[in-house]
Amino acid sequence: MLLQSFPEIIDVKKFFSRQARLRAPLPLQLLKRLEQYLNKAEGGNSSAIDVDLDFSQDEESRFILVGKMKGRVLLSCQRCLQAVEYSLSSDFKVHVINELKISGDRELAEDELEVVLSLEGKLDLLALVEDELILSLPLVIYHDEADCNQALIDLQASSRREIGSKAFAELAVLKNQLKSSKSKMK
């Protein structure tokens, strides 16, 4: 079974027993939590993320979801706050468990895969995909220094030099004060 539109919530048994495959563009406007990380530059973000999901069962009849996602998005440079184009991609493999059938922590601890819980046989596929995309974002993103706002870089460099020279001057003053207070105590 090959699907080409993105369902937000799925019936776990149906998708995994039919070994469904989902290949569909996921519109960015559906990803409200991811949206807060994106730069809002006009026309900069692609309209969708390409999603490829395989629903299968392994030899132990466990539900295994394998996913690959990719797309181009604009993030904000943390130096100049201007848009930086970023190739967002995520590959993941998770074990989907029905919350009512969990047989204790031992099963979860022995499993090498990440575990996702379904609620009453339903899985919020949109939330899972959005979580994986958010986790694949870089912690820090910058332009190359040559592409960044040059006036801001020059300002930061001059303030670093000024702070560096002042910091050591203040330490010298403190050191002299400490010496003079020690000599007064003797």
UniProtKB/TrEMBL annotation:
UniProt lists the family membership as follows:
Belongs to the DUF177 domain family.
UniProt xrefs under InterPro entries = YceD, YceD_bac
Protein transport as UniProt keyword: no
This protein's source sits in the domain of life called Bacteria
Q: Source species, please?
A: SAR86 cluster bacterium
What's an example GO BP annotation here? ribosome biogenesis
Give the protein's biological function. Plays a role in synthesis, processing and/or stability of 23S rRNA.
Q: What is this protein called?
A: Large ribosomal RNA subunit accumulation protein YceD
Tell me which GO cellular component terms the UniProt record holds.
cytosol
Keywords from UniProt, A to Z, are:
Ribosome biogenesis
